[in-house]
Each structure stands twice: as C-alpha cells, then as structure tokens.
C-alpha cells in the first residue's frame, strides 16, 4: 500500500535532484534563453526589452519580499526561480502587451507558483505556467480584447517592427556609429502598428505609413501563422489559395503566406521569444547537452502531436488538420517554449522515465484537443498544468520511481 498523499508530497521535495542541482539547472535554462531573447528584442524593439525587464524585476522583488518577511525557511532568490520565471514568462507574452501584465504576471507566478502551491520548497506546478494561466484569465476582462492572445478590437493583431531603414555604408565612419547601431537594434515602438496591407500600400505609393493622429507607424501587424491555421484548418497557409468568392478567402489572401522556413529563421508575428525556432533550437541544444532537462517529455509530446494531428486529419478528411500545416503546429515558438521549458521542468516533471513518457503523451493529446476542438489556437500552459497536477498519480500508481526512491510511510507523519 502506498503512503498517504501528505507523505508523498514531502518525499517529492526531498528526492534527487537536490535543491542545489535544481538551481544550477534553472540558471542553465536561463542562459539557454538568451538567443531567443536577443532575437525577440531585435524583431520587436525596445518595448519587448522593457517587458522582459519588468517581468524579471517584479519576480525578483516578489521573491525577495516573500523570503524576507513571510516564507523565511525558503531558499529565496538563490535558487534561480525568480530570474528563470521572469524571463520565461516575458518570452511567452505578446510583444505589445501592456506593462501591467508582466508586473502582475511575474509577481503572482512567484507568489502562487513558487511559494503558495509548494511543499518543502518544491513547487507543484511550473511557476511560469501558473502566471500565464492567471494572465489569460485576467485578459478576458481587459477592455478592447484580450492582449494575451493578441486580440484588439475583435481582431488578431500580432505586431512586428517594420525595419525600412538600412544602415548606411559609411556608418562605421560616423561619429555616432555606436548609438545608431543601438537604435537600429532596439528599433521602434512595436505598439505603433497598422495592418501589413496598409503599411505596404503606403510604402508602394511613396507615402509614410501613419496611424491615428498622424503618428508614423513603426510596425505592422497580422495574425500569427498558428492563428491562420486555426481560422482555416483545411487550407495550407504556405500556398497561395485559389481565387474563391468567400469572404474568408479574400481576407486571408491579404495576409502574407508563412511557411516553416519563415518560422525557423524568424521575423514572423509571435510571442517575444517565439519569433525564431532556430534561436530557440540553439538554447535547447544547451539544455540537452548539459542535462538540464530530460528529453523524454518533449520527445513524446512532439511525437504524440505529430501522430495525433495526422490521424485526426485522416479521420476528418482534412477538415480539422492537414499535413501541410502540421509543421506550423510544431514550430510555433510558444509551442517550443512550452514543451521544452514548461513541460520538461525537472522540478515538476514525473520522477521516472516511464512517468515522463506518460506525461509527454498526455501533454500531446491534451494539446491536440485544445487546438482542434476549442476556440484556442494553442494552450500549452493549460496542458502543462493539467498534466503536472496528475504527477502525483503518475509517480505513485502509474510509474513509481525505482525502489530506492519510492516513498515510504513515516509514522510521525501519520495523523493521530
């Protein structure tokens, strides 16, 4: 007979890996996010950098205050949770999100995810996933659309900086060459955007793109590739559609087609850290080679999504999924971040190899259901939270760890 739940939770916080090892893995994961962070700031400009800074600062302040005055027996800021949570949460936000979202999201992610929902300094859920869930729920009540899903005025608007100014050939000789390079790297304000069609029409007519109040437009917006797949799952977004009379077809033809190569190289509408799958890939290689995460959960999550999408596409005769769009599902930046950083977090993943297999399969199946049978274009943070909530079931009954680490009943923990 297995021990009562409270014994299991205390055991979960005491088995290998130890706190120092987990802290090292969090710092490694933070470093692995640097390529995606740099690409995100280049593609989305200084406001994206500001969102990252506010998220990290809020996570640090919350962690410091809670450790200093309330949870004094915790490890505090030394375990790396605040920096990893703040950075990861920001990279999973839209680039034009209001400033209050990273502040509230990071603070609640640390408070609820790290401290409140934890046992013996071990969180039950990945803190960044908890923060994302809270922000998506708060965004439902935000005026003019939920900014966490890129909705504004009833439309999907994911902006990207319009970099129309190329560095001059004599930039290196200019006395302010460094400042010009910095301005070019951080770009303009991604919040000042108009539709891509309006931006291109103004440029081709020799005019300066403008937004309301005659302010110059510094970015253009359109739906993400995954949003286009959600809107028309039976059509390939990589190919130019044939002329049809439907309003949906006419509207989609105004949007530039995106393929998996574009998503790999970057500069597509996405979350701050999800514009380039290639940049994320460099960081993931570091995670795998250093052993910061186990590849089991991501591998089986991806295999399940790949096989499941093909199977449902075959069963529904292409009405819900087609093979041409499956790379879009798999290479979406927020999907990569969710699978490799939220789902594979060693703190909250199941302990045994078979348990991680079950977790990966479950995440893949739940994510397919969310994408194909709900209004959500993606919902990995929901899939991760649901599966991590079942980790106790996986560890205790479905796939217990090896005997040396299996929980044992302690008489002093048994209620009298």
**Total E-strand runs:** 7
Residues in helix, %: 40-55%
Report on the biggest sheet. Answer: 3 strands, mixed
Terminal Cα span = 19 Å
Oligomer: single chain
Using only C-alpha atoms, the radius of gyration works out to: 23 Å
Which secondary-structure class do the elements indicate? mainly alpha
| Poorly predicted sequence stretches spanning 5 or more consecutive residues | 165-172, 240-254, 403-416
How many helical stretches? Answer: 19
Describe the structure.
Strands 5-7-6 form a three-stranded mixed beta sheet. It has a two-stranded antiparallel sheet with strand order 1-2. The radius of gyration is 23 Å and the shape is globular. The chain contains 19 helices and seven strands. It has 416 residues and is mainly alpha-helical. Helix 3 packs across helix 4, helix 5 crosses helix 7 (127-139) and helix 14 (296-315) runs parallel beside helix 17. Helices cover 55% and strands 5% of the residues. Mean pLDDT is 84; it is low at 165-172, 240-254 and 403-416. A hairpin with a 2-residue loop joins strand 1 (118-119) and strand 2 (122-123). The protein has helices at residues 5-12, 19-32, 34-44, 46-69, 81-91, 100-116, 127-139, 177-186, 196-204, 225-231, 247-253, 260-265, 277-290, 296-315, 326-331, 333-343, 353-373, 380-389, 391-398, and strands at residues 118-119, 122-123, 151-152, 155-156, 158-161, 193-195, 219-222.
């Amino acid at each position: 007979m297995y021990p009562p739940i409270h014994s299991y939770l205390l055991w979960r916080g005491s088995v290998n890996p130890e706190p120092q090892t987990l802290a090292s893995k969090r710092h490694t994961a933070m470093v692995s996010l640097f390529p995606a962070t740099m690409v995100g700031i280049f593609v989305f400009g200084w406001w994206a950098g500001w969102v990252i800074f506010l998220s990290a600062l809020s996570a640090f302040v919350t962690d410091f205050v809670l450790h200093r005055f309330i949870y004094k027996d915790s490890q505090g800021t030394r375990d790396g949770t605040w920096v990893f949570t703040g950075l990861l949460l920001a990279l999973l936000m839209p680039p034009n999100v209001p400033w209050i979202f990273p502040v509230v999201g990071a603070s609640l992610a640390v408070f609820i995810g790290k401290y409140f929902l934890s046992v013996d300094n071990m969180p039950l859920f990945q803190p960044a996933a908890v923060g994302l869930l809270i922000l998506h729920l708060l965004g439902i009540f935000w005026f003019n659309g939920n900014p966490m899903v890129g909705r504004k005025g009833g439309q999907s608007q994911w902006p990207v900086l319009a970099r129309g100014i190329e560095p001059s050939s004599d930039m290196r000789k200019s006395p302010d060459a460094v400042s010009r390079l910095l301005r070019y790297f951080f770009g303009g304000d991604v919040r000042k955007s108009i539709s891509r069609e309006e931006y291109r029409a103004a440029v081709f007519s020799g005019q300066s793109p403008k937004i309301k109040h005659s302010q110059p437009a510094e970015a253009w917006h359109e739906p993400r590739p995954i949003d286009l797949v959600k809107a028309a799952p039976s059509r390939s977004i990589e190919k130019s559609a044939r002329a049809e009379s439907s309003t949906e077809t006419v509207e989609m033809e105004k949007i530039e087609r995106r393929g998996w190569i574009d998503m790999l190289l970057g500069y597509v509408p996405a979350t701050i850290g999800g514009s380039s799958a290639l940049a994320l890939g460099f960081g993931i290689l570091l995670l795998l080679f250093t052993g910061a995460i186990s590849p089991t959960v991501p591998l089986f999550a991806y295999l399940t999504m790949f096989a499941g999408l093909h199977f449902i596409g075959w069963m529904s005769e292409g009405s819900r999924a087609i093979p041409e769009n499956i790379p879009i599902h798999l290479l979406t930046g927020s999907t990569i971040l969710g699978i490799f950083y939220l789902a594979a977090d060693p703190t909250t993943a199941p302990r045994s190899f078979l348990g991680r297999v079950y977790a990966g399969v479950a995440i893949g199946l739940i994510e397919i259901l969310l994408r194909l049978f709900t209004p959500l274009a993606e919902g990995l943070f929901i899939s991760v939270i649901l599966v991590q909530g079942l980790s106790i079931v996986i560890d205790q009954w479905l796939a217990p760890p090896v005997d040396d680490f299996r929980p044992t009943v302690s008489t002093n923990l048994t209620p009298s």
